[in-house]
């Protein structure tokens, strides 16, 4: 992949799933999700893909260097991104990056879209970033920008393998056809429907519980992938052991056959020698 071209196109390295739809995301929920995302990122390979014209409430987990600008996401914003940090306990500090008054050219009549990014600026991996889209106060769209696309369409196709971004397997690539690989088109997976959230809308406690359930589901899937990978490795080792045992048995049988042959020859040669002496 040509990195500079991919960066210009807005390609990012992210978790293969959209992490549900959440109308609101509190600081507490963001902290809990980031903490649990550390485990998820160690066991699930991330994919190269786009965030493009996301709907309200969509939540993504992205891996990127803090110094890099956020990739183009199909939304044009009419203000600069603001950032601030707050202490969240255990020595951690949560950085929030917020940009408002966004709109999708050719689709929105007013600029009402908000993007917030969350990451640990202290006592946590700063490369893991939660990205949440929501609705905020609106303002008129600048007429000259109304129909100017923020990126070129159709989007360029990048067929890059998934990669582990953290943990013991960091940097290891995983191709789609490999055991436990990411299914083709994972970067285009659809978010959970609103019906899956149920009463979570507008209820912070219910939403936090739903977000926790989403992360637990991801953790269970990661555990199944680890178990499946372990089963494959165990079967491979067992097969190799059986081959070695078969070879050892074959060598033992050959030695026994040779010994029997030697005994038989000795038994035959003794009478012949005696007869010659007589």
TrEMBL record:
InterPro entries the UniProt entry points to: Ssr4_N (IPR013859)
Top-level lineage group: Eukaryota
Pfam families: SWI-SNF_Ssr4_N (PF08549)
Chain spans, region Disordered: 214-241, 256-278
Biased composition (Basic and acidic residues): 217-229
Domain SWI/SNF and RSC complexes subunit Ssr4 N-terminal, residue spans: 22-145
Coiled-coil regions listed: none
Biological processes annotated in GO: chromatin remodeling
Protein name as catalogued: SWI/SNF and RSC complexes subunit Ssr4 N-terminal domain-containing protein
């Amino acid at each position: 992949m040509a990195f500079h071209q991919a960066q210009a196109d807005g390609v990012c390295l992210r978790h293969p799933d959209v992490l549900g739809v959440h109308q609101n995301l509190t600081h507490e929920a963001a902290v809990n999700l980031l903490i649990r995302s550390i485990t998820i990122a160690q066991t699930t390979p991330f994919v190269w893909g786009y965030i493009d014209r996301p709907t309200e409430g969509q939540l993504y987990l992205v891996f990127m260097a803090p110094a890099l600008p956020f990739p183009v996401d199909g939304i044009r914003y009419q203000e600069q991104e603001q950032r601030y940090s707050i202490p969240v306990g255990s020595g951690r500090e949560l950085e929030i990056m917020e940009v408002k008054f966004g709109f999708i050219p050719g689709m929105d009549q007013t600029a009402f879209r908000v993007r917030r990014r969350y990451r640990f600026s202290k006592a946590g991996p700063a490369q893991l970033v939660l990205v949440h889209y929501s609705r905020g106060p609106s303002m008129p769209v600048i007429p000259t920008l109304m129909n100017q696309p923020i990126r070129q369409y159709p989007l360029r196709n990048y067929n890059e393998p998934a990669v582990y971004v953290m943990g013991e397997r960091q940097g290891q690539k995983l191709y789609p056809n490999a055991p436990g690989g990411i299914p083709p088109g994972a970067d285009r997976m659809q978010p959970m429907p609103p019906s899956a959230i149920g009463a979570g809308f507008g209820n912070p406690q219910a939403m936090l519980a739903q977000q926790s359930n989403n992360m637990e589901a991801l953790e269970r899937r990661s555990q199944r992938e680890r178990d499946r990978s372990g089963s494959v490795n165990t079967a491979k080792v067992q097969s190799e052991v059986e081959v070695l045992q078969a070879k050892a048995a074959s060598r033992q049988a050959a030695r026994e056959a040779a010994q029997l042959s030697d005994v038989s020859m000795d038994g035959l040669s003794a009478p012949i020698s005696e007869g010659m002496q007589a």
